Amino acid sequence: MIATNVRRLSFYLLLAFAIVSGGLSWWQVIDAPSLDARQDNPEVIAARRSMPRGSIFDANGRLLASSRVSDGLSRRTYEDQAFTHLIGYSSLRFGTSGLERAWDDILTGRTDPNPLNDVVNDILDRKPTPRDLTLTLDARLQDFAAAQLGGDAGAVVALDPRTGAILAITSTPTFDATPISGDPNEAGEPMERIQDQPGNPLVDRTRQGHYTPGSIMKVLTAAAALDSGAITPRTTFREQPRQETEGFVVEGFRVREHDLSPVTPALWPLSEALQVSSNIFFAHVGLEVGADTYLEYARRFGFCAPLEIGQTSRVLSVAASFVTAEQDGDCAPFSDRAELAQASFGQGRVAVTPMQMALLAATIANDGVRPVPYAVRDVRDHAARPGSGPSERVIETYSPAGGTRVVSSQVAGQVRSAMVDAVQGQLGRLYAGAGAVANYGISGVMTAGKTGTAELGPNTPPHSWFIGFAPAQPNGNPAIAIAVIVESGGSGSGRAAPIGGAVMAEWLRLQSAAGN
Amino acid sequence: MLLPLLLLVPLGFAITHMATSGTADVGPMQIAAAYVVLMLAAHFVLVATGQRGDPLLLPLVATIGGIGLVMLNRLSPDVGETAAFGLNLDLGTTQVLWFAVGVVAMLAVAIGLRDDRILRHYKYTWALAGIGLLLFTFLFGTEVNGARLWIYLGPIGFQPGEFIKILLVVFIAGYLAEHRTLLRDAVWRLGPVRIPPLPYLLPMLAIFVIVMLVVVFGKDLGTALLFFGIFLTMLFVATGRRSYVLIGLVLFLAGSFVASRLFDHVARRIDAWIDPFADPSGAGYQTVQSLYAFGRGGLFGEGLGRSLLPTAGGRFFGVETDFVFAVVGEELGLVGAFALLGLALALVFRGLRVAVLARDDFSAMLAGGLTTSLGLQTLIIAAGILKLIPLTGITFPFVSYGGSSLLASFIIIGLLLAISHRSAVGAEAETAAPGEPDG
């Protein structure tokens, strides 16, 4: 009797030992890579202090970041402040941020890009080999975009809509990360100076900035409405011309039109409504779509959850954009029809990141397929003399990840054509004409786009927005999609649209000069 | 059987010395040699005195202890000297001296305890002695790391909890061996639940209360968990009723929940368990750092002498006691940690085999309880470090540094040897004279 119970006990103890062994395997093997990458892991701290660290180059091999070890201390130098937010810093005092953080294990060589080699290195107890990164970005375009923003606070995000490769991503004001990435004892004072600067230079506006989008949101509204069948490109709303002057009351809330002059209100279908950016029209469209369907399309475009830049496990996270109030990190349901009506033209509780809006433009440009944005093109052997360019030995190349279809190809085409009208059409030219690449010496290329003027209340100048892409002719092989915001920059047409047009034109010029 | 296993110890010492000194020199070998000689001597004494106990117990213990000694020798420069026996000695030396004390105690019990009546018949006396020791610790003990566990007799400190554990097992074994049929065939019904008659439950409820007092006043969660686990397991072995264990676990969880509401230090433990990374430099520091150590170890380990755990954080404590398993994981990898767990499991299985083969209920209960205490202790500390359960301070038997733990663990092995010796002799007598009623 007791013997039987003891045998049963031995089974339970065996089970308990098996569970403990499972826990052991979890921490030692399965979860080990993420433990090994944590900032306060003594191994990481020791490695960063004295070990060489890989360099970072732009797409053309221009040096952006490199390290030098002297007196047992690894010091890092950053060449271009336009890249500060993307690359981040590697500081012995303040830890790491940006790509320096996401790719820390590769840059220090703690992990091999190839997991198989990792096991071999572990067995042979090999020393870590630092690796270099090549970005998808072109420093010339990045610098150009940063210069366009000038002294204003704002952000530019541009990507290749076909691949998701980021071409420019810059946030102003910026700062020099070199002084905080050297001797930890001397990093405190420069950091304080950065923190004291006006405009919060430490904030990466491209990924962390939360802005009211204004009219650029109408692109999403149009795509959702066409794809869900709520409207066709020819749908009109009979009361709309009258409401343009009288206002449109939704559940006690009066949707007002912005100043339409010199245009006279008429019965507008989608193209004209987008050209003059009619709030009344898009309020009607949003209500036709309905609250649930609207949220569903917002989610498909990437709203309501954090986005990621990168296709591997090494990613930069992008703060979630919201259509409604935030609720547990997700979009709450619309509280009423008035909120839905306002969201449809980008006001109300909508809060977006520039990255999300660039992705919206890229999705329309890419035939309705949302690309996966990424910024690191390849990993290479560490260049012995980084100043004279990257190594020829490429260890791992990251090809574009497949995107997700958000709306049908046909709908993407309809939205694209309305966006082309918004920039180049007879009415649109009055508002977003400055976004056309034709203004910047690129002829024979159509531009699609939409401006936004995000109203912030009576006493604050509005944020100036532009999203767009080019070339935008049917089957035109779109080369660049862009989102531009200038904080309190006034109307979208006045400040953001010219920047968008100029940056896209600059990219097309660089591309044709390279022979593509 | 013993010799090849023991060769691991000098080898481990040599590798450690080479790795830390960077030379091809094997370094000092006195401690390793002393350990090998000690274990071989213990083996020969057992053989020479005709001790016919389980022949695998000592080799398993010697191997587990050997791994422990290699780790402690490696940790000794990091931890520094310790005061023991009135002398300042390094960790390895102290531990090997404690091994000697433990082995002598084991031999004395294994050879001297030919008759278990002294344990069986005086169970209440043993229980009283245990409770007395417990109270004495509460009243006059010294508080270390927030838990009152130590009694100092002159220069030698010891942890009574380790010995109370054995007394507890002796008492429960005696009590259950006597009343187990009653407990098993319980007739009282409380709705759908069948419970044993109250008078027979009372001694067990008393133990439950005492255990909870340990939690509350001694702030010693690990020992409380161990005591209660031993109690429930023995109840299961005696009655075969899983419901007792379930009821007991529910009571324990409820008690712990109340304790976490009433006492800050318990609540902090629970928080640090649920998410140690929320406060990686404060409440979660110990857990986070030891998980990092496991992560760094990976499959094959960093190699002896290469653990960052004792030095890199700068303020990690308990690397030679509660957290020695994390160092094993870091330096010997998953492979080494698996090996250590496997050896511990093998020891548990041998101990349970002693219980299965025991000649009478008391011996079976005693062997089962003692083995369970070793097994549960290993599980509790390993699971605690691995964040499977809240972390509680308790030693890894035969591996952690500490005289009381080592001495108590060797006494347990001595008892198991004595019990299995009687079974072997009894079985032989039976075959020699068939038909004789068994004693």
Describe what you observe in this structure:
The complex is a heterodimer of chains A (516) and B (439). With 516 residues, chain A is an alpha+beta fold. Chain A has 20 helices and 21 strands. In chain A, strands 3-2-1-6-16-17 form a six-stranded mixed sheet. In chain A, a hairpin with a 6-residue loop joins β7 (154-159) and β8. In chain A, α11 (218-228) crosses α14. The model of chain A has no long low-confidence stretch (mean pLDDT 92). Chain B has 439 residues and is mostly helical. Helix content of chain B is 69%, strand content 6%. Chain B contains 16 helices and seven strands. Chain B has helices spanning 2-6, 8-21, 30-48, 57-79, 91-112, 117-120, 123-140, 160-184, 198-218, 221-239, 242-262, 264-274, 285-297, 324-357, 361-385, 403-432; strands spanning 82-84, 87-89, 142-144, 147-153, 156-158, 188-190, 193-195. In chain B, the strands form three sheets. A three-stranded antiparallel sheet of chain B has the order 3-4-5. Chain B has a two-stranded antiparallel ribbon with strand order 1-2. In chain B, α10 packs antiparallel against α11 (242-262). The radius of gyration of chain B is 22 Å and the shape is globular. The model of chain B has no long low-confidence stretch (mean pLDDT 82). Chain A binds chain B through residues 1-10, 13-14, 16-17, 19-21, 23-29, 31-33, 35-36, 38, 40-43, 45-46, 119, 122-123, 125, and chain B through 233, 236-240, 277, 280-281, 288-289, 291-292, 294-300, 303, 308, 312-313, 329, 333-334, 337-338, 341, 344-345, 348-349, 352, 355-356, 358, 361, 364-365, 368, 372, 375, 379, 382-383, 386-388.
